[in-house]
User: What shape does this take?
Amino acid sequence: MRAAVQHETGRPELDVRDDVEAVGFGPGKVRLRMRATGLCHSDLSAMTGVLPQLVPFVPGHEGAGEVVAVGDGVTGLRPGDRVLVCWLPSCGGCPACKRGQTQLCLAGLMAAGAPNFRLGGSGADLFGFAGTGTFAEEAVVGAGCAVPIPDDLPYDIAALIGCGVTTGLGAALNTADVEAGSSVAVIGCGGVGICAVQGARAAGAAQIVAVDPVASRREAALRFGATEAVPPDALADARARVTGGEGFDYAFEVVGTSATARAAYDATRRGGTLCVVGAGAMDDLFQVNMFELFFDEKKILPSLYGGGDVRRSYERAISLWRAGRIELAGLITHRVPLSGVNDALEQMRTGEALRTCIEI
Assistant: This one.
């Protein structure tokens, strides 16, 4: 089958091959035929080494498709079911799951240590990014990674709900719990940042300032609900105008660097909330001094995968989409076949795309 392979960390392009095999099918597993997958910035971060990932690997974790086969012991799924891919499934029995913090369950990530692809010819093992690997025609994943979707939900939109939509909406609605009438700044307006904008709008925020260096992304943020959009060097002016210099009630960092996290912290009012959504590197340290941490009483809230039960978050996203409260189709600005995955990577690097849908 066809799949895109990252042979070594730091390599800028993927190797699209026809001799990859999905392996590991058995009890508790399902085999999926992928139909659509989004390119998330986390895939690029895994390729560059910002996020740790065993190599060689098949990138992709934001996908949707249909069940081809189910292994022994799998219930609730059958061949032909339409599903989205959950890259962080919960086990239901660990302490985090029992506390209701299923997004902190490590069972799925622990499973990522086992290869689920094989390269033809050499027979070399390949890992799937985050235990999935959706840049492939087929993938074998744990049954918890396959979440049934309704028939009226297109595969391309379902794929986005599998990561970017859930992450952005959840940051606003779950983690930060944005209050109606509040002021919000969103730093970084790719697909996830745009969904944070939409989440803030759905929560009733009065002012939503989108911050991004790319003009086309600022224009998109306005279409999706931002009340104004500025480049990074105009954030201080926007803070002064919109909040009277006090600072925003909520600031969302959706880039994944200490510099943007610090900018978001500085843009937040005393007693306000900084929500860190971007996935950054382990050696990139975010610093605050002990006096400002104490005196300003700003809440620093990291948000992993939307900061809540992901299945409930999926259902909420679908309900909001059906009601017309959020716009998801418009997030997809580019479409390419799997053979064009390197074009998708370039569209992300340049900021040209909000989300590129890879049609498989």
The chain has a mean pLDDT of 96. Residues 191-203 form the longest helix (13 residues).
